[in-house]
Design a protein that fits this description.
The protein is built from twelve helices and twelve strands. The protein is an alpha/beta fold and 346 residues long. Helix 6 links the parallel strand 5 and strand 6. The structure holds pyridoxal-5'-phosphate. It catalyses: an aromatic L-alpha-amino acid + 2-oxoglutarate = an aromatic oxo-acid + L-glutamate.
């Protein structure tokens, strides 16, 4: 007989990473195509010389730099091993067995897994016909058991956004004891001026936290660094449930160097946004429905055609992300990569 594990985990789907095949064009995981900047590689190399020591468990230099940039108290910033890790800490810090977490569906596929691992209950609210968050329905889904609400803005995988007025209305109506987490993994790609900066929106609100990452616009997906900006009391609880030394010294140094190179990296984002628009225009011209995207990917809501479309792309050497029965998410790559995708899809 093997050791007994939690039977409820048998029901849990495994996180499905984007596919990776040597030589293929990889547009399945919303990574940026460019490698790290030389200044970031130099910081990584320098930090490598110190890996006989444990890292600073509080990521103090990075948290202080983030706090200064965002004009928040450093006590509000918690750095983690990727923002997924911080996301899990937010669930652990707010939920016990049977508590409820409300989020839109389809949205980031890590949410239901992280919620269930803690023993909490995911409460999903269908997206609107326009593939966006249905905030009034999410508000209506809040019960006395609700401890946390995720709003993914822009939403992964649909690229849709919630705008300032509707989000403020929502935040004003959520009970103050329920934490709202604005997951802004793609915020650097937003061009719609009506989309609020979550950190600004959270100022003065004791139940709103923002989640951000170095994995997307900052190009450090492989190093695993993300963070939350939260009210101090929430941040303190989030720190308590963190794994000690969870963020390596190399990752911390790379993140600090990337912040220093933010201007350069934002130029890359601007170029990517142009490509995103080019890809969307081409798809729309070819007859696809493609919601306006404010992230570094586009969403093709092809329903039952999802797996077949992804296979057609794979046959042409382009890996995209299919969600069976729902649609296909395609990350924006280099112009040549995007052309390869468009040739396969249109
Ligand atoms: C990619 C992504 C993240 C970032 O995850 P990391 O752990 O920081 O790499 C977080 N939230 C959403 C919605 C994402 O798509």
């Amino acid at each position: 007989m093997t050791a007994r594990t939690r039977p409820d985990l048998d029901l849990l789907p495994a996180y499905v990473p984007g596919r990776s095949t040597p030589g293929a064009v990889k547009l399945a995981s919303n990574e940026v195509a460019d490698g790290p900047l030389p200044s970031v590689v130099a910081a990584i190399t320098a930090a490598a010389a110190g890996i006989n020591r444990y890292p600073d468990t509080g990521s103090t230099v990075l948290a202080t730099a983030l706090a200064a940039r965002l004009a928040v108290d450093a006590a509000q910033v918690v750095v983690g091993n990727g923002s997924v890790s911080v996301c899990q800490q937010l669930v652990q810090a707010t939920c016990a067995d049977g508590d409820e977490v409300v989020f839109a569906w389809r949205s980031f596929e890590a949410y239901p897994i992280l919620v269930r691992v803690v023993g909490a209950v995911p409460v999903t609210v269908p997206l609107t016909a326009e593939h966006g968050h249905d905030l009034p329905a999410m508000l209506a889904a809040i019960t006395p058991r609700t401890r946390l609400v995720f709003v993914c803005n822009p939403n992964n995988p649909t690229g849709t956004v919630v705008r300032r007025a509707e989000l403020e209305r929502f935040l004003d109506a959520v009970p103050p004891e329920v934490l709202v987490v604005l997951d802004e993994a793609y915020t650097e790609f937003v061009r719609d001026p009506e989309v609020p900066d979550g950190v600004e929106l959270a100022r003065g609100r004791a139940n709103v936290a923002v989640l951000r990452t170095f994995s997307k616009a900052y190009g450090l997906a492989g190093l695993r660094v993300g963070y939350t900006v939260a009210p101090v009391a929430v941040a303190t609880a989030v720190r308590k449930v963190g794994v000690p030394f969870g963020v390596s010294g190399i990752a911390q140094a790379a993140a600090v160097a990337s912040l220093d190179a933010a201007d350069e990296l934002m130029v890359r984002c601007a170029e990517l946004v142009l490509e995103r628009e080019r890809v969307r225009d081409a798809l729309v011209s070819a007859g696809y429905e493609v919601p306006v995207s404010e992230a570094n990917f586009v969403w093709l809501p092809v329903g039952d055609g999802a797996l077949a479309l992804a296979q057609r792309c794979a046959d042409a050497g382009v890996l995209v992300r299919a969600f069976a029965g729902d649609g296909v998410r395609v990350s924006t790559g280099t112009p040549a990569e995007n052309d390869a995708f468009l040739a396969a899809a249109t």
